[in-house]
Specification:
Layout: E1 2-6, H1 11-22, E2 26-31, E3 37-38, H2 47-51, E4 56-59, H3 67-87, E5 91-97, H4 106-120, E6 125-130, H5 134-145, E7 149-151, E8 156-157, H6 162-175, E9 181-185, E10 190-191, H7 192-203, E11 208-210, H8 216-223, E12 233-234, H9 239-244
Parallel strand pairs: 1-2, 1-4, 2-3, 4-5, 5-6, 6-9, 7-11, 9-12
Antiparallel strand pairs: 8-10
Helix pairs in contact: 1-6, 3-4
Bound molecules: NADP nicotinamide-adenine-dinucleotide phosphate.
């Protein structure tokens, strides 16, 4: 298949590109900095040309929490779907976050709105939802540790290796439009505090764990395991194993 990956230069997108290419597909990388297929989802620039002759789109783009997130994820997805439908693309694979509808934070509200745009759009679709990526957590801990602190809230996460999410996305591409949503999560459900301890042990960095109380509805939802899913498809690589490989943290949220 000819497959376009928007955000194909990002943390997840580059793994999706590698996975699809490894399976023998022809892959186009679309982003603002992509060398061949430069597109901007917040304006629609470059989309028509980049989608010409494409069979399926994986949308792995992301925007920084705030205004940028809505411009890329909600309005940008609408532009992408319209351009895809006009180009005759047969399948849109969206990427979302496990439990986004359960945790009332701004970024997650944007992800729920983005899912709605995909469901209501003109293109046959599938959505793969993932839990937090190992490089995201490693990035959060590394930034906090610069001030010799580590956030230690006690809500659980189920972090996942983005390479395994990429394989689940490639499966979804090959299966064709499901008009449905599937969850993919990591093998362990652990509190952020436990994950921070693991990060500190494995990196040898000096930092003090700081208890963090999260108030309100979002705090309650997080403590209830809102970002985890025991019924999801489960990856194999734990956070500790991923850290052992010495892979790079992500700078983005
Ligand atoms: N990070 C996590 O833990 C996590 C967990 C679950 C689900 N997800 C979801 O996975 C997806 C990818 O997230 P990620 O963390 O891999 O993102 P990321 O590393 O921040 O990468 C974002 C990608 O989007 C591109 N991009 C940004 N603005 C753009 C624009 N205006 N037009 C076109 N491309 C643009 C970037 O490339 P340029 O800068 O070159 O444009 C980059 O390739 C998102 O849907 C996210 O919600 C993430």
């Amino acid at each position: 298949m000819q497959i376009a990956v928007t955000g194909g230069t990002g943390t997840l997108g580059r793994e999706v590109v590698a996975e699809l290419a490894g399976r023998g597909h022809s892959v186009r990388v679309l982003s603002r900095s992509a060398p061949q297929h430069r597109v901007d989802l917040s304006t629609g620039e470059g989309l028509a040309a980049a989608l010409d002759g494409v069979d399926a789109v994986v949308d792995a783009a992301n925007g920084k929490p705030g205004r940028d997130a809505r411009a890329v994820l909600v309005d940008g997805t609408r532009r992408l779907l319209e351009a895809g439908a006009a180009a005759g693309v047969g399948h849109h694979v969206g990427v979302s976050v496990v439990g986004a509808e359960r945790v009332p934070w701004g970024y997650y509200k944007v992800k729920v709105a983005q899912e709605g745009v995909v469901r209501a759009g003109a293109m046959p679709w599938s959505i793969v939802r993932a839990t937090q990526f190992h490089p995201l957590l490693a990035g959060v801990f590394a930034r906090a540790a610069r001030a010799r602190l580590l956030p230690g809230p006690t809500f659980p996460l189920q972090p996942v290796d983005p390479r395994e999410v990429a394989a689940a996305i490639a499966d979804a591409v090959e299966a064709g439009p499901s008009q449905g949503t599937s969850d993919f999560a990591g093998p362990e459900r652990r509190t952020v505090r436990e994950l921070a301890r693991t990060w500190r042990e494995q990196t040898g960095r000096q930092a003090v764990l700081v208890p963090l109380a999260l108030p309100g509805a979002a705090g309650r939802a997080l403590r209830a395991g809102g970002l985890t899913d025991p019924d999801a498809s489960i990856g194999r690589t734990t956070f500790a194993q991923w850290l052992t490989e010495g892979r790079q943290p992500s700078g983005a949220l």
